[in-house]
User: Which sequence fits this backbone?
């Protein structure tokens, strides 16, 4: 059964086309296992017993109850996908909460049309060591101030 789930994952990623591409598409494909885990307790136990084999991750996006997800989900790697181009003005506090779990963050993608102070707050939260970080993509659409830079304390493989 585990092999069938693994093969299903591969099909989802092939059909999703661009799930791993940083600039385009959403990383929605990473949520492929959510539906399967809700089918029955046996499937959920089998899926959650093999997170590295199946490449499981929790996806933190705007509108996701991130605090509840972090409190009630297993400690799976995190994908922070905050790609909103519709002029946000307030920061989703859940994103900052997810960034505090540095040892679990696998991918970070910010693409925001936001005031410079908001962007500074997001970038300032990406400090210290992120031992699992595979991707970091920041795409500011509106950036009148060019003195923004990543913190010098950021450390990632």
Assistant:
């Amino acid at each position: 059964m585990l092999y069938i789930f693994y093969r299903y994952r591969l099909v989802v990623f092939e059909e999703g086309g661009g799930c791993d591409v940083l600039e385009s598409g959403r990383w929605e494909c990473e949520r492929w296992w959510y539906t399967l885990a809700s089918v029955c307790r046996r499937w959920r136990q089998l899926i959650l017993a093999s997170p590295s084999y199946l490449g499981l991750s929790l996806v933190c996006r705007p509108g996701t109850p991130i605090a509840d997800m972090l409190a009630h989900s297993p400690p799976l790697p995190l994908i922070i996908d905050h790609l909103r181009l519709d002029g946000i003005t307030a920061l989703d506090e859940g994103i900052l909460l997810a960034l505090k779990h540095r040892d679990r963050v696998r991918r970070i993608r910010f693409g925001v049309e936001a005031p410079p102070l908001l962007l500074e707050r997001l970038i300032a939260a990406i400090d210290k060591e992120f031992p699992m970080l595979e991707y970091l993509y920041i795409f500011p659409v509106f950036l009148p101030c060019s003195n923004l830079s990543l913190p010098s304390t950021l450390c990632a493989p």
